[in-house]
Amino acid sequence: MLLLIAGTCLVAFVLLLYMLSPLISPKPLALPGAHVVVTGGSSGIGKCIAIECYKQGAFITLVARNEERLLQAKKEIEKHSINDKQVVLCISVDVSQDYSQVENVIKQAQEKLGPVDMLINCAGMAVSGKFEDVEVSTFEKLMSINYLGSVYPSRAVITTMKERRVGRIVFLSSQAGQVGLFGYTAYSPSKFAIKGLAEALQMEVKPYNVYVTVAYPPDTDTPGFAEENKTKPLETRLISETTSICAPEQVAKQIVKDAIQGNFNSSVGSDGYMLSSLTCGMSPVTSITEGLQQVVTMGLFRMISLFYLGSFDNIIRRCMIERTKYGTADKTA
């Protein structure tokens, strides 16, 4: 009898949630004619996002440090125009150093292409290494680029978005911003910080019809990833090899899709979905279905995650044993 009552209550609760779902689901953002600013847009995921938005009729402002790569990206993006009115504007600036410069850059972009409808924060970099081997300056550098490099552009567009009652802000975190991994003691914290910023900001701006998306891409085949691999510790590399490398175009399409819909989380693949559910915590949801899926899958995903963590520990332990063995051999010799 108690089971029947509990089941009935659960069904009634689910039906109520579905009835309320339209009240919390944002209206999709129309990209044709919209002004999209992409930081770190001269290569990798950022450039692919710019191309994807351009294909859908958006006007693009690319922001990055390297002018030569910016111009190359501009030419590549312009090949995908769908009408002769579209424009790709390039501005060279370091978004992590001086807020006043970033603010001026955003003002310039808005004077030329109109108010910013969507901001994509892709500027960032990864450096891996054992905690004691990483220079202290590297911790400061990564926090500046990966965290403040997202704070400054967002701060520069948020007032206008709130006044217009429309906008999207996308933050690029990482799967290493959902779970701390060997070799990422400098990188992971800078990406974990993004989630805290996004959750707090979303609570502030939601009443103004402005929505925040946090993207958690896996290892992606980009120039930055190739550069990181040159100095990646063996343990980190072996852990990374337990999952496949994604194409930047695939990641970009998913991010743009989630941003348009106003989804808070954006992930790719089954591992990404599992991590997003596991680490959702008090994160906002943009549909009741999403919330229910998280509730239902949490226990199962936690069991699976324990298997992953165990396998990672085994990798690290084996590497330590091998190093100890060869180190002893060297001393003996």
UniProtKB/TrEMBL annotation:
It is an enzyme of class 1 (oxidoreductase). Pathway: Sphingolipid metabolism; Lipid metabolism; sphingolipid metabolism. Pfam families: adh_short. The keyword Oxidoreductase applies. It is found in: Endoplasmic reticulum. SUPFAM superfamilies: NAD(P)-binding Rossmann-fold domains. Keywords: Endoplasmic reticulum, Lipid metabolism, NADP, Oxidoreductase, Sphingolipid metabolism. Its EC number is 1.1.1.102. The keyword Endoplasmic reticulum applies. Belongs to the short-chain dehydrogenases/reductases (SDR) family. This is 3-dehydrosphinganine reductase. The lineage of its organism: Eukaryota, Metazoa, Chordata, Craniata, Vertebrata.
